[in-house]
């Protein structure tokens, strides 16, 4: 197995440095491709000063799926891993990845989250939609054969969020399974600042509606699923209003954002489904453009 590791990053110099240090320790010999952009915190200089990064790709586009595709374009391995710059691989990561990919074409594992109260971890998440068993994966800790990524044409660059979940639906449509390896673990360190960020409600629902409409069509089951999601979020937000954690005007404003996102996502998803009628359902994939990179520094 020749492994390439693609690490997209944006204004996360210190976290990226820890991520690369862990890769050098626990995955020596892997080809490391950092996709940066557009950062303004000295990331470029830090990466160029290291001798364990094989390729640095500079972008002008902030979308994560664009960064993923740009990194995949430069990877030479027959197995390509995607790693979030905020995560550090643990000691058994490489062996577990190799075990999982030996039995299939895609593998993912848990994230160990350092919290003030202790350590949490994740378990495999899957559900059945329209007769398909969809196994979701963390887009910041997953590996695929290069052939599989070619077959699905990488990630859908329409999406600002939810690209990994969209890919999971498309893998299921092509009858690929995503293996879960508990030893393929990564760690996210505890941070006391920041708190929970307010969701971008318009893009959250635009992405969700787009993914479902593109992969399954605009059908009653899709509309029921979207309605269920929006009702649960509306009830949760209303509880925040009742507790005094949010004001009523923001609740109504968020509702308008949700409706706008749903309408746009359903429309664009239906158009995307028409544009790519093949099972891979990716009319905005890797093959559609070649101008992602502003600059490429290849040290191989």
Structure description:
With 300 residues, this protein is of the alpha/beta class. The protein has two domains: 207 residues, Spore Coat Polysaccharide Biosynthesis Protein SpsA, Chain A (Alpha-Beta Complex); 75 residues, no CATH class. 42% of the residues lie in helices and 20% in strands. It is built from nine helices and 14 strands. The strands form three sheets. An eight-stranded mixed β-sheet has the order 12-6-11-4-1-2-3-14, sandwiched between helices. A four-stranded mixed β-sheet has the order 5-13-7-8. The radius of gyration is 20 Å and the shape is globular.
Question: Layout of SSEs?
Answer:
Layout: E1 3-9, H1 13-26, E2 31-36, H2 43-48, E3 55-59, H3 64-74, E4 79-83, E5 88-89, H4 93-102, E6 106-108, E7 111-115, E8 118-120, E9 126-129, E10 132-135, E11 141-145, H5 146-151, H6 163-173, E12 179-180, E13 186-188, H7 201-216, H8 220-243, H9 248-275, E14 293-298
Parallel strand pairs: 1-2, 1-4, 2-3, 6-12, 7-13
Antiparallel strand pairs: 3-14, 4-11, 5-13, 6-11, 7-8, 9-10
Helix pairs in contact: 7-9, 8-9
Compact overview of the structure:
The protein is of the alpha/beta class. It contains nine helices and 14 strands.
What key phrases describe this protein's structure?
42% helix, Spore Coat Polysaccharide Biosynthesis Protein SpsA, Chain A, 300 residues, 14 strands, single chain, 9 helices, alpha/beta, 20% strand, four-stranded mixed sheet
